[in-house]
């Protein structure tokens, strides 16, 4: 369905209505529940688009939902709208939700505009480096989501669950090694070189990397927080992981340990716990009591 705000544009409407038989068949491969959800979100976003106008997330998500429904041309039309309005949607190049859209014959031209728009904001940047950071982060996070799905479906003692856990750890290790290589080649991914979202993506990859790599780049993480390129929570998690791996007490209370006796997760030992909330607040974190609300974790 065409967004109301675009009905006055006959060329745009024509694009939206040009849905091939292949796309209709592709739609049949998704579940009815997913299809209903995607249609609902499209309706909500169409309304928001008509009221509030074009925005990165609105147009991008409309493109993604149409792509997931197999409606390639509708998805492409929203991507075209995004690039024509100069929006920054670099991750469209690697987002699996847009895999269908990227098979359209219009995609190469749109991709060229996406890269061009990105370089207008980051003229001295490296789009290839930025895309690699996005891919590493998203590959890992998708596998983590699969861990939870397998746990719910098969149970946490199943072979399927533990195979996914093993694969998740493998991806984390490989990501860390690849990030290390990229940093050696291009330097630390500063915001003005790869973009804010990509600098954050590097921090996410670093969180799940092996501790040796975390130790190697902890100073860069500190600088990124100091320069307001990433949030302090990234530093808190990485710093605590390093301390726990070295057999020391953590500083920010971000790490848990499993207690075999109680069969519960417990907060790992904390250095100078009296000043814990002070340290957390300095990095922009909630107090420990607020943080633990709703979590099934024991605080001694």
Automatic annotation (TrEMBL):
InterPro entries referenced in this protein's UniProt entry, alphabetically: DUF6624
Keywords for this protein: Signal
Keyword Signal: yes
One Pfam family from the record: DUF6624
Protein name per Swiss-Prot or TrEMBL: Tetratricopeptide repeat protein
Keyword Signal: yes
Signal peptide: 1-25
């Amino acid at each position: 369905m065409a967004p109301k705000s675009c009905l006055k544009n006959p060329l745009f409407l024509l694009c939206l209505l040009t849905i091939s038989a292949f796309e209709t068949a592709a739609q049949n491969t998704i579940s009815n529940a997913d299809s209903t959800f995607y249609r609902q979100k499209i309706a909500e976003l169409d309304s928001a688009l008509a009221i509030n106008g074009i925005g990165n997330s609105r147009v991008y998500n409309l493109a993604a939902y149409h792509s997931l429904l197999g409606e390639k041309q509708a998805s492409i039309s929203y991507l075209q709208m995004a690039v024509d309005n100069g929006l920054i949607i670099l991750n469209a190049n690697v987002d699996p939700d847009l895999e269908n859209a990227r098979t359209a014959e219009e995609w190469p031209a749109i991709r060229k505009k996406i890269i061009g728009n990105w370089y207008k904001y980051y003229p001295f940047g490296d789009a290839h480096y930025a895309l690699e950071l996005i891919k590493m982060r998203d590959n890992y996070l998708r596998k983590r989501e699969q861990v939870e799905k397998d746990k719910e479906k098969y149970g946490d003692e199943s072979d399927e669950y533990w195979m996914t856990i093993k694969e998740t750890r493998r991806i984390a290790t490989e990501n860390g090694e690849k990030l290390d290589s990229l940093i050696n080649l291009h330097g630390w991914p500063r915001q003005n070189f790869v973009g804010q979202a990509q600098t954050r993506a590097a921090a996410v990859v670093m969180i799940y990397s092996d501790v040796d790599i975390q130790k190697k780049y902890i100073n860069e993480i500190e600088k990124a927080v100091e320069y307001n390129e990433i949030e302090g929570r990234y530093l808190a998690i990485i710093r605590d992981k390093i301390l726990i791996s070295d057999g020391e007490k953590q500083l920010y209370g971000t790490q848990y340990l499993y207690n075999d006796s109680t069969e519960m997760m417990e907060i790992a030992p904390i250095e100078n716990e009296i000043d814990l909330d002070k340290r957390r607040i300095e990095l922009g974190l909630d107090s420990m009591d607020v943080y633990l609300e709703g979590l099934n974790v024991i605080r001694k």
